[in-house]
Design goal:
alpha+beta; eight-stranded mixed sheet; 16% helix
């Protein structure tokens, strides 16, 4: 098994087999730049760039790592990503002396992750949220429409999605303020205005687009993955009571546009290849433009922890897996663009809530508490139906290899009280 000269613990999310990209700024000061995570450290790629380590690659003269976002690098495409990744892996190898034995360069190029501030990894021009988990869609449908009409007729024929709000995508660690909005109780004639009372999290995974497509030119499904730069964890916060009143006939609006949190490290699709698996059987067979040959899912284990303001420790409340998704990333991209929509570097697409068949694998409180009928039991005698002020939600994800782990780190956020209504 390949190893780095940087010490990496066996349960670390960031071995040499991973090397996720992120944008960081030293807490001591300085400008944002691009790095990769290795163990507990960040390797500053802008330092390697200035030192000429990429001059023998397609990155020569491009200065893509002395940037405040990954967009310029993502736009270059898969062949350049692979070339850069191979170079970085070689430089970090325990067998390679160029960086290992250069004490001066190492001192400049490496920083502890605890010494840096992680920033949003991309300039996100557009954000699309899908609804790709059959278990999640079925559970929600049963709650609101009954078992006989759980799935809408279109659901098994196309990846359902909606266009989200890119401006409110925030990096992990950003506090999220409880939103205000209109809500209507069933027993009242008129809606009320005030703080959301049914605030929820949604366990999702997102992917950042590299090269896009021209307007009017769909991305065929067998080429769709070439447009995926890498994956992040996503918590798409949701105001259920606001959504219940506003969503007809056009879907979510204020209920979803106040905040979406993503993890700072972008795991390259190439790092996930050893964990590629077959997704669920699709019946009926999708239309030709959505038919995917080969395995389109990945075995990514997911977990959610919740820690209330009065709780000494976080408590795990959910475990799920990316492989549960009915519609694959490639199918979602193919459908997104089949009508002529153009994707651009930095666009974020997300899966929608990822739930499995077991109760413990339900990826949101709406499902875990069955719309409030089955309160979630926490430590110290506490319960939750919906998120309370001061609650912190932390999501993590990883693929377990033989002696190593490909991880995403985490995405975390704390709920702040709503602003005054006046």
């Amino acid at each position: 098994m390949e190893r780095s000269f940087i010490e990496v613990a066996a349960d670390s999310h960031f071995p040499i087999q991973n090397l996720p990209y992120g944008v960081f700024r030293p807490k001591s000061g300085g400008t944002p730049r691009v790095g990769v995570a290795i163990g507990d450290c960040v390797l500053d790629l802008s330092v390697l760039e200035r030192a000429g380590f990429f001059e023998d690659t397609s990155l020569r003269g491009r200065a893509v790592f002395a940037q405040s976002s990954l967009n310029a690098f993502m736009a270059l495409g898969r062949s350049v990503w692979r070339e850069a990744r191979a170079k970085i892996q070689r430089l970090l190898s325990e067998q390679e002396p160029a960086l290992r034995d250069n004490d001066t360069l190492r001192a400049e190029a490496f920083r502890l992750q605890s010494e840096v501030e992680m920033l949003l990894p991309a300039e996100i021009g557009d954000y699309t949220d899908f609804y790709a988990s059959k278990d999640h869609a079925t559970n929600v449908g049963i709650m609101f429409r009954g078992k006989e009409n759980a799935l809408m007729p279109n659901w098994v024929n196309l990846p359902v999605g909606y266009h989200g709000r890119a401006s409110s995508v925030v990096v992990s660690g950003t506090d999220v303020r409880r939103p205000l909005g209109q809500m209507k109780r069933p027993d009242e004639a008129r809606p009320i205005f005030g703080p959301c009372r049914q605030l929820d999290f949604e366990l999702e995974i997102g992917w950042l687009i590299g090269p896009g497509n021209e307007p009017g030119e769909p991305i065929p499904i067998d080429r769709a993955e070439e447009h995926i730069f890498g994956l992040v964890l996503v918590n798409d916060w949701s105001a259920r009571d606001i959504q219940a009143w506003e969503y007809q006939p056009l879907g979510p609006f204020l209920a979803k546009n106040f905040a979406t949190s993503i993890s700072p490290w972008v795991v390259p699709l190439e790092a996930l290849e050893p964990f590629r698996v077959q997704g669920p059987h699709q019946d009926p067979e999708p239309l030709p433009y959505l038919r995917q040959t080969g395995a389109g899912a990945f075995d990514i284990q997911l977990a959610v922890e919740l820690q209330g303001a009065e709780m000494a420790e976080p408590q795990q409340i959910c475990t799920s897996n990316f492989r549960y998704l009915y519609w694959s990333m490639a199918q979602q991209i193919a459908h997104h663009t089949v009508g002529g929509c153009n994707l651009r570097p930095g666009d974020l697409l997300a899966s929608g809530t990822i739930s499995g068949a077991e109760k413990t694998s339900r990826g949101c409180l709406l499902e875990l508490t069955w719309r409030g009928a089955e309160p979630l039991q926490l430590g110290d005698g506490q319960q939750r139906v919906w998120l309370e002020d001061g609650d912190r939600v932390t999501m993590s994800g990883w693929c377990q290899g033989d002696g190593y782990r490909i991880g995403f780190g985490s995405v975390t956020g704390r709920v702040l009280p709503a602003r005054s209504e006046n």
